[in-house]
Amino acid sequence: MKDKVVKAIEELRPHLQADGGDIELADVDEEKGIVKVRLKGACVGCPMAQSTLQLGVEQFLRKKYLKSSGLKPSRKYF
């Protein structure tokens, strides 16, 4: 599962980077199906960050790669 998530993040990164943001994988809990990511750059503090996670990143992961239980922002950097 982690390999699929890494591949998905790499596909998504250019889209976020085009707007000055970025994303990195923080953790994958394969047992629970939870993916944690860190939004970086312009995404930090952006009012659209939660929408980006839910409507962009999470939906992309679910449709294309896996059936994760959820995507959680890593609070360390978010």
Describe this structure in words.
By secondary structure, the protein is of the alpha+beta class. It has one domain (2-73): Fe-S cluster assembly (FSCA) (GMP Synthetase, Chain A, domain 3, 2-Layer Sandwich). Helix content is 41%, strand content 27%. It is built from two helices and three strands; from the N terminus they run αββαβ. Strand 1 and strand 2 form a beta hairpin. Helix 1 (2-17) crosses helix 2. The longest helix has 16 residues, at 2-17. The model has no long low-confidence stretch (mean pLDDT 82).
| CATH architecture label | 2-Layer Sandwich
Tally of individual helices: 2
CATH superfamily heading: Fe-S cluster assembly (FSCA)
Strand content: 25-35%
Level-1 CATH class name = Alpha Beta
The main β sheet shows up as: 3 strands, mixed
Helix and strand pattern: HEEHE
Number of domains: 1
Low-confidence stretches: none
Question: Biggest sheet, strands in spatial order?
Answer: 1-2-3
Radius of gyration: 11 Å
Distance between the termini: 23 Å
Kindly state the percentage of residues in helix.
40-55%
Provide the CATH topology: GMP Synthetase, Chain A, domain 3
Looking at the structure, what is the overall shape? globular
Q: Mean pLDDT, as a whole number?
A: 82
Oligomeric category: single chain
Structural topology:
Layout: H1 2-17, E1 21-29, E2 34-41, H2 49-64, E3 70-73
Parallel strand pairs: 2-3
Antiparallel strand pairs: 1-2
Helix pairs in contact: 1-2
